[in-house]
Amino acid sequence: MQYSIISALAATLLAPTVLALPLPAGESTATSTEVVAAASSTPFVWNKGGVDTFTIHQSCNATNRNQLLRAFSDLEDVTSHARDHILRYGNTSEIFIRYFGQAASAEPLGWYSRFASGDKGNLLFRCDDIDGNCKNPGWAGHWRGANATDETVICDLSYSSRLYNDQICGHGYTIAGSANSLTWAGDLMHRVMHTDSFGEFVAGHYADTYVECLELAKTNATFAVRNSASLRLFALDAYAYDIAVPGIGCLGTPPAETADSHAAATTSSTATTQNAAATTSTAITTANAATTTAATTTVGDTATTTIATGTECHTHADGEVHCA
Ligand SMILES: *[C@@H]1O[C@H](CO)[C@@H](O)[C@H](O)[C@H]1NC(C)=O
Ligand SMILES: *[C@@H]1O[C@H](CO)[C@@H](O)[C@H](O)[C@H]1NC(C)=O
Ligand SMILES: *[C@@H]1O[C@H](CO)[C@@H](O)[C@H](O)[C@H]1NC(C)=O
Ligand SMILES: *[C@@H]1O[C@H](CO)[C@@H](O)[C@H](O)[C@H]1NC(C)=O
Question: Terminus of the chain with fewer CB atoms < 10 Å: N or C?
Answer without folding.
Answer: N
